[in-house]
Amino acid sequence: MGSLQYSTNATRITPPFCGLSKQGQRLLTSIATSTAAKDHHHRLLRKFVKSSSKHVALNTLSHLLSPPTTASAAVAGGPHLSSLVLPLYLMITEEASWFSWNAKLVADVIAAMYKQHKFSDAERLMDEAIAKIGSQNTRDLCTFYCYLIDSTAKHQLKQEVLSCITLLRELIIASSSSIHVQKRAYDSMVAGLCEIGMPREAEDLMRGMMIDTGLKKLKPSSFMYRSLVYAYGRLGLFEDVKRNVDEMGGELDTVCSNMVLSALGAYNDLPEMVSRLKRMKVSKVPFSVRTYNSVLNSCPTIMSMLEVPERIPLSIGELMEKLGSDEANVVKELIDPSSSLTMMDGVIEWKGNEMKLDLHGLHLSSSFVIFLQWIEELRQRWVRGREMGEPEVVVPVEITVVCGLGKNSVIRGVSPVKGLLKEMIIRMKCPLKIDRKNIGCFVTKGKVFRDWLFATH
What we know:
By secondary structure, the chain is mainly alpha-helical. Helices cover 61% and strands 5% of the residues. The chain has a five-stranded mixed β-sheet with strand order 1-2-3-5-4. This is OLC1v1003517C1.
């Protein structure tokens, strides 16, 4: 068996949302609404596996392996479908010709079995995995334990995480593993402890790893520090957050800064959030989609506005008037036109004569502010440029605003961003219209949009 591939990117801190395919949604809806016996459900699963592509089958299994709040989302009012995980996995392994054994997938299934208190199934799968890898294959066994720590931590299975960490520590201490293998093992152990709310134990483990391994070259990684920063932040331990950020020194980057912002947002510390945004600017750390999402989701007034789109402000100026000082300061730092770190360049794309505003990945609050910011910047560029007698700025032939079809929304096919923009566009009397060729976009002619900006100035 070839060596398993693993990277610290696989050690997730936040579980992902797995968008469900149409075929998978039909299957789960059929089972959820059926009163038939389990045998009938298993026949449906077997038929599904035989008739589905690799992508569709694994997509459905991954959806079921997600935390219950997302795994149940595809079937409104349906029962929790996690009991389908093991039969679907076994049918895929036994009947799908395309299937090849995957350590990450089996680790996810084992964690799901522990979550469902099916301990004998979990232990059986774990024994089979270890036998398949081989007890002497330290590198791949280490990788498997890393995946297992990640998967059990995602489900907040504290005892199982601690047990896996014990096994992994014993493995790397007893073996002569390479620095690379030992580093990724400690990355995973630290991240796992942080995920289950034990950052102090994680930090102790991080600081003791050189003693454990006897390798002075094995030093704390930026990944470990990021995990600690996020975990301490979630617990409101901001002195520990600042201490670890300071220890990172030159490692401060967008990812770490976003973790700090998320932590501050969880405790509604908006003044400190403003200070953090200022520090990012001074350090020339660029803003990202997650920067906007973390910051704006923490603004209670904006979030309450989004609940009543019929009354939502239609300009940056109007928005600022309705915000308290703390929230207004946060928004000012984000959209500061004098800063080169704003995210506008990242969401605006020029393709030939077309200008595209792409809102993919942006949460509702971020899409709202970015849309207003985009209109404001175009207005200043075109309208004020004309008033100042400057040479006319190039106007695109077509303008497109991409908001998506809602494939990854809580309710599949219903895009909250599209719904919000539609309401705003109608109230603004903006010329953007839903694209007939792609209903996940709004389109208009560039000159028509420019003339609208002139008329509404």
